[in-house]
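Example for tutorial group B:
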């Protein structure tokens, strides 16, 4: 069994910063692409950023230049540094990871979500 545990959400004023973390644990052989998605009320969940095991990153246009994704492969952990936050960044943020389990099953794992609220 594999699980993703997120932390770091909260309430911040516009222009402020937050750092999200997500750690994968369980019966893991390797963790491949990791990423962050978000879902605002009444909207579909969408990709914010992702990072390959080798460190190649991609970002949604709306966060480019403000958010930075990184990872620590030794800890199976992904981070999202969010700067210059805007009210429109308010959403539940979900961690996602493509995992090869020790059983050699490929899994698409999701965290439980962490709330980020940006006040104007």
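The residue assignment follows.
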């Amino acid at each position: 069994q594999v699980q993703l545990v997120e932390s770091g959400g909260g309430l911040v004023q516009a222009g402020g910063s937050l750092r999200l973390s997500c750690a994968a644990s369980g019966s893991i052989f390797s963790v491949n692409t990791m990423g962050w998605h978000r879902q605002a009320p009444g909207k579909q969940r969408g990709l914010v950023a992702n990072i390959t095991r080798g460190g190649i990153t991609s970002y949604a246009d709306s966060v480019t230049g403000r958010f930075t994704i990184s990872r620590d492969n030794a800890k199976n952990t992904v981070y999202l540094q969010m700067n210059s936050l805007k009210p429109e960044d308010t959403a539940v943020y979900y961690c996602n990871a493509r995992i090869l389990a020790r059983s050699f099953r490929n899994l698409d794992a999701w965290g439980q979500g962490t709330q980020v609220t940006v006040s104007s």
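The first strand starts at residue 2 and ends at 7. Compare this with the pattern of hydrophobic and polar residues in the output above.
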